[in-house]
Amino acid sequence: MTADNTTDAPMVSTGAESHPPSFLPVSANDTYPEEKKATDTSPDDQPQTFYRRYRLWFHLFMFLIITGMMVGAWVLHGKDTLVLSLLWAFVSLKLMFYHVTTRVLSKPLGMVFGAIMKVVSVIPEKIRLALGVLLPVAFIVSVTLALPVQEGHSNRLDRLRSLFGLIVFIVILYATSDKRKSIPWRTVVVGILLQFLLGLFILKTSVGYDIFSWLSNMCSTLLHFSKSGLAFVTSDDIADIGIFIFTVLPAVIFFAAIVKVVYYLGGMQWIVRKFAWLMVRLMGTSGAESVVAAASPFVVNFTLP
């Protein structure tokens, strides 16, 4: 008597998905929605669309247009085009890496980091842990004391006071912990170091200040549109009322709608994936922790009950 081990394949819904695949080019291995629908059938049965056939030329045309605009901006405005130049570089790299695999860069970088990790792994674990804590602390202290004091800003004593306060917080949290041996010191040290480097880049360099000042102005302008939307739905008099329900709540709803649109187009998934990848590599966090931490600034305020 033989048993039939074959099972019927589960029914797959052919209806509309809750959210479509990304419409944004992510890498050379990613496909567009129409390509994903054609994976189960022969290429001969699925004729290529005009865009798919000449996609390379479309992207080249886009690159030439934005490059021509950037050349004009560089000639007319010069040094005032820093943020626009960064956006141009980002879009150009996105278009390039859609047709050129990222292994062109990731493979050499992997070899370099692999060689560094081989050298680091030779050091005993206890010494490696001590160096991993002492070197960042020495770097933070030395930079804090070495930076010149500007008139009207904090002096070195104020900086040491702030640094001492940070140390006190860490000591208190360590002393009140129930499982001190389970503390991931790599995550703690790298997180503090990244915050210090980010603050140093923003506050002590003109490039960092210009970039984040532009981002701040863009966010303020974008959120200010919520007031125009409220005035369109109600009236200008109601939009000018300075209470919570007419000031904060419309901005929250407006930003939530923007996040949903970006998520629908696949941009939010790309942002979260890249930030999570960076956190896993630098801080040693798990994939779930990294994804939640990367997505929290964008979606946590709009998914809580």
Q: How much helical structure, as a percent, in the residues? A: over 70%
Written as H for each helix and E for each strand, in order along the chain, the element string is HHHHHHHHHHHHH
Number of strands: 0
Question: What is the straight-line distance between the termini?
Answer: 57 Å
Explain this structure.
By secondary structure, the chain is an all-alpha fold. It is built from 13 helices and no strands. Helix 3 (55-77) runs antiparallel to helix 4, helix 6 packs parallel to helix 8 and helix 9 (206-233) crosses helix 11 (244-265). The longest helix has 28 residues, at 206-233. It starts with 32 loop residues before the first helix and ends with a helix. The relative contact order is 0.06.
